[in-house]
Amino acid sequence: MLLAEDDRAIRHALERALTLEGYQVTAVADGVEALAQAHKTPPDVLLLDVMMPGIDGLQVCRVLRAEGDRTPILMLTALVETADRIAGLDAGADDYVVKPFDVEEVFARLRALLRRTSPDNGAVVDVPKEVPPSSDRQIEAAGLRMDVQARRAWRGERELELTRTEFELLELLVRNAGIVLDHSTIYDRIWGYDFGPGSKNLAVYVGYLRRKLEEPGAPALIHTVRGVGYVLRED
Predict the structure, then answer these.
(1) 172 and 211, same structural domain?
(2) N or C: which end of the chain has fewer CB within 10 A?
(3) Do residue 96 and residue 142 come from a single domain?
(4) In what side-by-side order are the strands of the sheet with 138-141?
(5) CA distances from 181 to 4, 60, 87, 151, 228 (A)
(6) Do 56 and 103 belong together in one domain?
(7) Nearest to 28 by CA among 50, 5, 59
(8) Does a structural domain hold residue 132?
(9) Per residue in 98-155, pLDDT tens?
(10) CATH of the domain at 224
């Protein structure tokens, strides 16, 4: 694991806690060091502070994603506005924890990210009956087409530029077109962990995905079922 945090006290505390939890941690103090270390020894997961001098966490995300690096990234941020969270997701982050945070929450979110990228790590996640696994390479619904193996998606003839989490969320909705998926089911399948009713992760991702799916004059595809969850359908 690569940890980048400019606050020495937080960095040392997190490094100690993560080491005690069983992680092998390389800790650095800024974005420049983070990029250098990521290029030298690619980590399994990155834990990045947003506000760092020089190159901040968002810039580190953008550089790595532009290079095609899909290593899961968990952001640490003191910024709590929705626009700030969207900026982090737009930069390529997979999840975020808002400061001040409980270290157990950091552990939970790291475990969830690693479960998603390490299918053979022994994690067991219950799969609801209405969300059957599938190895079909090509899937289609509501004018959307996805090549699961190539990780590509289109609405009509337009190819969509999606992050990994956006792709997985859209795949889940397409495979279950017309079925209302509740929040817990989506959290379990996409993040491997239900962050509870107070979490805004899902709403932020759905909003961002909706914007990428928008077509002038075309119907919306992702619909909110209040108090339940979301459904993909073409009205």
Answers:
(1) yes
(2) C
(3) no
(4) 138-141, 144-147, 152-155, 158-159
(5) 36, 34, 26, 22, 7
(6) yes
(7) 5
(8) no
(9) 877 788 888 888 888 887 765 444 333 333 334 444 445 788 888 899 998 888 899 9
(10) 1.10.10.10
Write out the two tokens for 30: 């800024």
Enclosing domain of residue 159: 138-232
Please name the amino acid found at residue 202. L
Of 117, 146, 165, the position where a domain reaches its end is 117
Q: What is the pLDDT of residues 48-82, one digit of tens each?
A: 998 888 788 888 988 888 888 888 999 888 766 66
User: Under 8 Å CB-to-CB from 104, ≥6 apart: which residues?
Assistant: none
How far apart are the C-alpha atoms of 132 and 134, rounded to whole Å?
6
Q: Can you tell me the distance from the alpha carbon of 106 to that of 14, in angstroms, rounded to the nearest whole number?
A: 9
CA distance linking residue 171 with residue 95, whole number of Å: 18
Q: Are residues 6 and 86 in the same domain?
A: yes
Computed over every residue of the chain, the mean pLDDT equals 82
Q: Which residues of 130-144 are buried (b: 16+ CB within 10 A; e: fewer)?
A: ebeeeeeeebebbeb
